[in-house]
Specification:
The complex is a heterodimer. By secondary structure, chain A is mainly alpha-helical. Helices cover about 75% and strands about 0% of the residues of chain A. Chain A contains 9 helices and no strands. Chain A starts with a helix and ends with a helix. Chain B folds into 3 domains: about 45 residues; about 40 residues; about 140 residues, Rod shape-determining protein MreC, domain 1 (Thrombin, subunit H). In chain B, strand 10 and strand 11 form a beta hairpin. The longest helix of chain B is centred in the N-terminal third of the chain and has 36 residues. Classes of the chains: A mainly alpha, B alpha+beta. Chains A and B meet through helix 1, helix 3 and helix 4 of A and helix 1, helix 2 and helix 3 of B.
Amino acid sequence: MIVFIGIFILLIPVSIFHNILMSPEIIFMITFILIIRNPDYVPVWLIGIVFLLNDFLLTLPLGLNTFIALLTTEFLRRNRLFFIEMLFLTEWLCIAILLLAANVMRKLLLIITLSEHAPGFTVITQVGLSILIYPILVVLVSFIFRIGKAQRNTLYSAKSIR
Amino acid sequence: MANIDDVAINFTRSIARIGLLAFLILSFSLFLLWRIDNPRAENIRIIVINRIVPNMEWAMVPITRVTKMLQNFQSYERLYSQNQELRNELQSMRSWHEAALQLEQENARLLDLNKVKLNTKYNFISGKILIDSGNIFRQSAIINLGADDGIVEGWATMDGLGLVGRITGVGSETSRVLFLTDTSSNIPVLIKPSNQRAILSGDNSSQPTLLFIENNQQIQPGDRVVTSGDGGVFPSNLLIGKVLLSKNNQLRIQMAANLYNLSFLRVIRHSPTASINQPNRLIGPILPKAIANE
């Protein structure tokens, strides 16, 4: 429970910084990292509540980010075992593709509903920046929450027990 | 034993799946609501903000402390250069002071000649910023004043020096300020020595652009820009900033207000001037109904 509150506090004020680097993508990436490392830290309801709050407080389109976050994190959760076995570089690449996909989906939804959306160039630079700082985030998050990727042998042993 | 464990795992799995579905449907329907009935969705947003933000201040205290510490540290680093800058500024301030005194005397003489009756000064309410929720897509802040304090949508807000933005959403205890730098902010302005009218349009950068200028040649970088009061949304003659010429020959504005270091805002109380919407209001006072109906 303490961990949940920790994540909550970590996620909310981050979104309040007045800085280009502190964009909504950061929250996405922190959630991705936590899901790959330890999915118990980020249950579905927590993701839902945090992203909904984020949408409400930052005057983003209501519910849009929540919807996309739930879909992408569910995808990650299902394919978690592959991500655990990956080398870091491949993981980075996959996360980058996932982030891009999330942004394309957001853009498409906004275009389909004919609502106002940000110019493409800023979106691209923002996503690029976020992808670049992914390793830093990984180090920070695993330091703060004291988690790492599960080791291969422990993973297999856990499987074999089941 | 293994069987019971499996059942338990399946059970939690299915609960998680139902939760996921519920959240998905909820968020998507919220998005549709936001798109279809935008005013109602924004009202819901304001209600939620009104509930949450005042209760969340404790969580922000450490964050604001840390950022303040960092800022202090940076200012120590720049102490020497700042000192020099201040000296220079003081020098130029002295000359301005002299100029201001002379202008004041001249103004007093002219007013005396003209017998002008001055407007009553706009009065203002000061509020504290609760969340500075600027990101690169939305430039706005939430302040701790609301309908209970008499705030009305559309009022102008300033920091100590210049215009910051306007009120765009009012809850009972909080309200939202849309900055001039936001893409959806377009306001009529007056560029001072040449009296050119233009529209100041935000584009999410820290320096909003000037559009629809009548005559570009008459504008020099460094000219003062104030609100023109056209359209009746803002009072006229509030300082915004000075003109800049950007690298690609675009006219932009260096804002007088310091958007990156805001902590308090002044909300300017003003009532819009009476609008002229009937021909008989144009000349003379309002006629009694019996005469007006003839």
